[in-house]
Specification:
The protein has 380 residues and is of the alpha+beta class. 46% of the residues lie in helices and 13% in strands. The protein has a four-stranded mixed beta sheet with strand order 1-4-5-8. Helix 8 runs antiparallel to helix 11.
């Protein structure tokens, strides 16, 4: 069964199409690739399905209900792919989009640097033209899953004489080459998905600058816009199962008999429902405030989890004492190389979510200036 054109019908019709397709195509891994669902929100002209984010959310929900694979190629699908669709030349689209669509090429994002976090324009990694190639030198940090990636999309300073925002270019570069070193960063929960990436005379093609030389800031803002859009469409779905686990833990440990704890749980449930409603609205104004809203919700709900778990929450997932103290605890198991449980890891990660992608304070400035039209904050 084809679901082409199903977006023209109502959401209920689309959901019925997806359910029928799932029944007819199990196992789904290769079928999802063949059906162009990995990049279903892309335009059909470049191999997508023209799905809205609302329909994408329905697709994820139905696949999740069957335990099926999530149609995703990570940063390729959600960030660099749509950016190439928007800014890329025909040749760049021909060379880079197929590998993202079929899931054979993995990407990572090289924006942050040791001296350029929230102030992204302070980046110092350079790209110098050498014939028909760019020569890259510098360092990126907090590069998610770079150790798994084949390519990196990154910002480099290509015109040091230009003003900070004007001399930056957006390049795509093969990651597995001499001159590039990837070092994993071990985190407090034992995981190591973040990396440092060092460039020492690394090279990429001269025609692999996206959007034109020295125009990287505008291209990067497009990428960050896609990042906010993807977050706006999937945040509630990511947090709802987690809240269910926290509620189960509260019941199993008797904490729901505490009236103060019940009020805190009810407040978090209300905030989660508000997030769901924000995502259903999906307006530009909502997207602008959404990252600030969900990151602060997640920080607060994970603090609630820590209070419910108490000292038990400090026991590692494999510790038999955790199972003895929490006999009804049904938390998902972490990957084999994680000593922390999924909720422990989520607690640690929630501390960073109000920082990466623009701190909560910066997000408030953006909302104040760009949504509410308030005066800009005075320069210090």
């Amino acid at each position: 069964m084809s679901i082409t054109g199903a977006t023209a019908a109502g959401s209920l019709t689309f959901r019925d199409h997806v359910r029928a397709w799932i029944r007819e195509n199990e196992p789904l891994t290769q079928a999802a690739v063949d059906a162009h669902w990995l990049c279903a929100t892309w335009p059909s002209a470049v191999g997508g399905r023209d799905l809205s984010w609302d329909h994408w959310d329905i697709l994820l929900a139905e696949l999740s209900a069957t335990g099926g694979p999530t149609p995703s190629t990570g940063f390729g699908q959600t960030l660099v792919g749509p950016t190439i669709v928007h800014w890329g030349t025909d040749d760049q689209k021909r060379r880079h989009l197929p590998g993202i669509r079929n899931g054979t090429i993995r990407w990572c994002q090289g924006f942050s640097e040791p001296g350029a976090g929230s102030d992204l324009a302070a980046l110092s990694t350079t790209a110098v033209r050498d014939g028909d190639e760019w020569v890259l030198n510098g360092q990126k940090v907090w590069t998610s899953e770079a150790f798994l990636a084949d390519w990196i999309f990154l910002l480099c300073r290509t015109n040091p004489a230009a003003p900070r925002h004007k001399g930056i270019s957006y390049l795509v570069c093969p990651l597995r080459q001499p001159g590039i070193e990837v070092r994993r960063i071990r985190q407090i929960d034992g995981g190591a998905e973040f990396c440092e990436v060092f460039f020492t005379n690394a090279r990429c093609r001269g025609d692999d600058v996206i959007g034109g030389t020295d125009n990287g800031w505008a291209v990067a803002m497009t990428t960050l816009g896609f990042e906010r859009g993807a977050s706006e469409a999937t945040g509630w779905r990511r947090f709802a199962p987690e809240f269910d686990e926290i509620l189960t833990l509260a019941r199993d440990t008797g904490r729901t008999r505490d009236p103060v704890m019940r009020q805190r749980l009810a407040a978090m449930w209300s905030r989660l429902e508000i997030l769901r409603m924000h995502e259903l609205r999906g307006t530009a104004t909502v997207v602008a405030i959404n990252k600030m809203y969900w990151s602060e919700y997640h920080r607060d709900v994970m603090e609630l989890w820590s209070d419910i778990a108490g000292l038990r929450g400090q026991l590692l997932a494999g510790d038999p004492a955790q199972q003895e103290m929490l006999p009804g605890y049904r938390a998902r198991r972490p990957p084999a190389d994680y000593p922390a449980s999924v909720l422990q890891s989520s607690f640690f990660f929630s501390r960073a979510e109000t920082i990466w992608g623009g701190t909560a304070q910066i997000q408030r400035n953006i909302v104040a200036e760009r949504v509410l039209g308030l005066p800009r904050e005075p320069a210090r």
